[in-house]
Amino acid sequence: MADSDPYYLGYRRAEQERLQRQAEELAHEARWLLDQIDVPVGARAIELGCGPRGCLDLLSERVGPTGSVVGIERSDEAVALARRFVTERGLRNVEIVAGDARATALARGTFDLATARLVLVNVPRPEEIVAEMVALVRPGGIVALHEADWRQHVCDPPLPAWDRIFDLHVRYARMNGIDLFVGTKVPRMLAEAGLVDVQANPLIHVYPLGHPRRMIFYDFAENLRDRLLQQALIDGDELTELTAALKRHLDDPRTFVVSHLFLQAWGRKPS
Hints:
Elements: H1 13-25, H2 27-37, E1 44-48, H3 56-63, E2 68-73, H4 76-89, E3 94-98, E4 111-117, H5 126-136, E5 137-149, E6 154-156, H6 160-175, H7 186-192, E7 196-203, H8 216-230, H9 236-251, E8 256-258, E9 261-268
Parallel strand pairs: 1-2, 1-4, 2-3, 4-5
Antiparallel strand pairs: 5-9, 6-8, 7-9
Helix pairs in contact: 6-8, 6-9, 8-9
């Protein structure tokens, strides 16, 4: 049975703070993607599921004062944080709209670029978001995604607690219609949605001790704690023991950590 709040990582304060840090951590990759798309000054862009910051500042810079950026976000707290970020940064060409990425109610075919980052991997029915993105861009417009595939997120030496927590996440995701392995499917999804000239760029990283994203699997386990307990996938004592073991392992400088596989994919709507 699907959770009443389908977003996989939830909206706790620690997660909103992590997303704000993530915007800085992934900024260089976002800039690379925008370079490939070659977003022109004066363009109209939209970011679906922008969270508290997303790529709003990077898009604002690219489109310039004659362009415009819309950020769509469903979480009230994230909307408030995004609006504060826009105000503090003086991003006068950016508007934050509270809404559902599957049904934005915005005019069809009016954007030059629709983009989203790490949204599809966290929600049910990701193909509906892709369809909405395609509908929003004009003929000749671009849809661009940065997504994850959990399959490659591993550590060495192996840790039974890591494997058990990973299995719990996969089980919870499947019970709630979420595909943690959607990243590698995105190029096909774009093509099946009618886009042409689909291209892809794979990314994978190593997270040494001190890397800002080394603890991401632990953070995700904490995000999902209440939901795992509510759906009776594990009892609280065992989960506490597992997460403690995971943290000790990640705190050990001898532990080698490989990131999720990330995939940037983009395509053009036929003219």
